[in-house]
Hints:
Layout: H1 2-32, E1 46-52, H2 55-63, E2 68-76, H3 85-88, E3 96-103, H4 110-119, E4 128-129, E5 132-133, E6 139-143, H5 146-163, E7 170-173, E8 178-179, H6 187-190, H7 195-211
Parallel strand pairs: 6-7
Antiparallel strand pairs: 1-3, 1-6, 2-3, 2-8, 4-5
Amino acid sequence: xxxxxxxxxxxxxxxxxxxxxxxxxxxxxxxxxxxxxxxxxxxxxxxxxxxxxxxxxxxxxxxxxxxxxxxxxxxxxxxxxxxxxxxxxxxxxxxxxxxxxxxxxxxxxxxxxxxxxxxxxxxxxxxxxxxxxxxxxxxxxxxxxxxxxxxxxxxxxxxxxxxxxxxxxxxxxxxxxxxxxxxxxxxxxxxxxxxxxxxxxxxxxxxxxxxxxxxxxxxx
Length: 220
């Protein structure tokens, strides 16, 4: 009898796990097939959204680019409301760590921001960047209209052709950006002696700066 109960319990748990995975896949598919939302200019400033690993690293990279006024860390690409650092790290919300890049389109174009994106990461790494692994660290480029989508796909294809490799970045319609917790904002600047910042974020930033010196703000 005990063996029968144990078998039934295992079957039930397996069924629930399978059902949950199916629901997650459907939710993620719905996100990818959604109609993009275009964010209007505010005081002449545009917004773009990217995910490519730890947002501490990505924030520092984009804040060094001419024409970028501010970068905000948060979460995007998922299907739950009000994601947190803890919940997104489970990989069960569908969200990735992402940044909102606020920029002056008369100084830096969306096309150039894409060059920064593809040129500042390991484009072939799936579900992660460097030591950070998991779907919450996957690479995603978000488009707000068809023009942006076409441009993203063209650049992604060009990078893949150049490297003769598959580019891992996913292409999603922008839906919603959830601002991250206050302690995640300006993290690299406020915590320069943090071991992760010293060993991962700063080397990644320096590598980008050496590659794109013409895009940097003065003193960067």
